[in-house]
Amino acid sequence: MLNGVRSAESAHTTNLDESKVKTLVQAAHANGMLAVAHVESLDDVDIALAAGVDGLMHVWRRGGASPEAARRLAERKVFVVPTLAVPDGFLPEGRASLLADPRFQSVLSNPIEEHLSRPYSSPTGSPDGQRAAIDAQVAAVRGLHEAGVTLLAGSDPSPTLPTSHGISMHHELELLGKAGLKPTEILAAATANAAQAFRLDDRGRILPGRRADMLLVRGDPTADILAIRDIVRVWKMGVEVDRSAAER
């Protein structure tokens, strides 16, 4: 994982310059590894593409849809993990809707609830500015999807960000829907696409010989992606998880 790339637009951030990015990507590929880069701007995307990265973490923060960037990413088969749940999480209403969802109430731990209930300062300085920022990033993801770029679902949970393991992934799936993905495409982003992109050939699809990692849910998530929140049973590697231990 490359921590970033250096561009004029992101010069205020401690990142890697173009020559270092190219050297690291070449070294990763020489050792049979993927090279995945964090990006902040469209200039960063240019540097990452020039270096030959395999994937991008996050969608660029500003500028909205870029047909040119989307076309180049699609042509070079570079996957993107948008992590829209991060910028949207800086708006309290997004996190509040998750915490209020009755489908999570019985299994939501106190630490996660406390983490998502804390106030977070918007990177833009105001709620209205943050709403405009997330709208631009959703537009960018919509453009990537329309161009045929492979999108993966990820929520970037971190102690310093307004996201958390598990529950924030559900929010990410919802936001991918707002970016124009159909429910079946969203499910693929979280399963088969992710497994294929990261060369995990033993999982991601329900097939003989694959890992039996499965959810049983009420409703039809291929018609309504929010149905995936109503989890009834969970299996990990074919063994059912005892969910009663997580219930309050």
How does this structure look, described?
This protein is mainly α and 248 residues long. The protein is 41% helix and 8% strand. It has ten helices and six strands. The strands form two sheets. A three-stranded parallel β-sheet has the order 1-2-3, with no helix packed on it. A three-stranded antiparallel β-sheet has the order 4-5-6, with no helix packed on it. The radius of gyration is 19 Å and the shape is globular. The model has no long low-confidence stretch (mean pLDDT 92).
**CATH topology category name of the domain at 58-205:** TIM Barrel
Using the 3D structure, state the CATH architecture of the domain at 58-205: Alpha-Beta Barrel
The secondary structure category is: mainly alpha
| Element-by-element helix/strand order | HEHEHEHHHHHHHEEE
Low-confidence stretches: none
Strand content: 5-15%
The CATH homologous superfamily name of the domain at 58-205 equals: Metal-dependent hydrolases
Number of DSSP helices?
A: 10
Q: Write out the strand line-up for the largest beta sheet, numbering strands in chain order.
A: 1-2-3
CATH class of the domain at 58-205: Alpha Beta
Mean pLDDT: 92
Distance between the termini: 37 Å
Considering DSSP H and I runs of 4 or more, what fraction of the residues is helical? 40-55%
Radius of gyration: 19 Å
Largest sheet: 3 strands, parallel
What is the approximate shape?
globular
Total beta strands: 6
Oligomer: single chain
Summarize the structure.
This protein is mostly helical and 248 residues long. Helix content is 41%, strand content 8%.
